[in-house]
Description:
By secondary structure, the chain is of the alpha/beta class. It has twelve helices and twelve strands. Helices cover 40% and strands 16% of the residues.
Amino acid sequence: MAVSFPDRMLVTGGAGFIGSNFVARAVEAGSFVVNLDALTYAGNPDNLAPLAGNDRHLFVRGDILERDLVLGLLREHRPSALVHFAAESHVDRSIDGPGAFVRTNVVGTFELLEAARAHLGGLPPGEAAAFRFVHVSTDEVYGSLGPGGFFREDSPYAPNSPYAASKAGADHLVRAYHETYRLNAVVTHCGNNYGPYQFPEKLIPLVALNALEGKPLPVYGDGQNVRDWIYVGDHCEGVAAALARGRPGEAYNFGARGEMTNLALVHALCDRLDALAPPAENRALAGRVASYRELVTFVQDRPGHDRRYAIDPSKAEAELGWRARHGFDEGLELTLRWYLANRAWCERIAAGTYRRERLGLAAP
Ligand code: NAD
């Protein structure tokens, strides 16, 4: 089914990885987007460079915790949807400092819901009923799977990390605002995203950039943890489909049937990089290795590391007419080519405070 976007949207977290990919697609499709982002360490104005000068994109630097700011934007721009990506999103950071996750992910979502409720109370009933709120959440709220089975929308919540728990708390608030105040809200759950503009603390860009620089490629524990990978563009199309066709009060899981162990993923990435940026021609390696695989280094596991995630996307496929369009090999190729072509983007991040150091080893 064709991808369509609302005419006017308020998007939170649109300078982050998934948000910036979503905003670019929406603006290109003709939407007017007010993009509210606090520009934390993960928010990057460079991600929005392709939208510079586009009058269908209005960037507002601000915090979702500021209810009056959000309410003012809703009243001024009268969007027909609020798409909520803004979050603290890195599990390892949530182990080191859970407070920021509770503030942004739980309290921040509450403030957005309250702003939306106040705004809708002042609108004509038809416009209020048509207003849609989408909370972009994660499959991590369901906890960890054994060797079999899949996360479905009716899987019980069992979050294991402070990050997952904070997203679960936000999901429950969104659901409650639908049940209690009839807010036209939908929650989406997605597995591990990869693609252009992902901050290099996450596995795929971290491994790719370390490999290119001849550094060790850290694999947590035994490398047998399984994640379900989805190309970011497919996730963005899923969120658009949920906006257009999701039933109020429902949840939708997006996945690409892309289960893989972390070690298999790192090996696949190394093999592709061996072809795209041959080690023999890479001066950073100085002839030390014949394949990037040789840089793989097993490191101490993450505390409470979930063993397996796997998503059953059949409800989203049946009800939303959505389906992931990129297989892993194709998505990985697009992603690696993007990072190779955008080394300046990577270098500007490296010039900031994050040096790809290990995070999230705090004692429980
Ligand atoms: P990201 O960390 O790259 O981006 C988050 C953005 O939110 C940043 O631009 C940051 O500046 C902004 N932000 C943080 N706190 C804010 C605040 N208080 N007010 C306003 N803006 C704030 O994250 P991402 O990977 O793009 O994830 C986006 C959303 O998707 C998150 O809600 C995340 O939980 C969810 N999600 C991510 C994945 C994934 O694999 N990355 C998978 C499933 C769900």
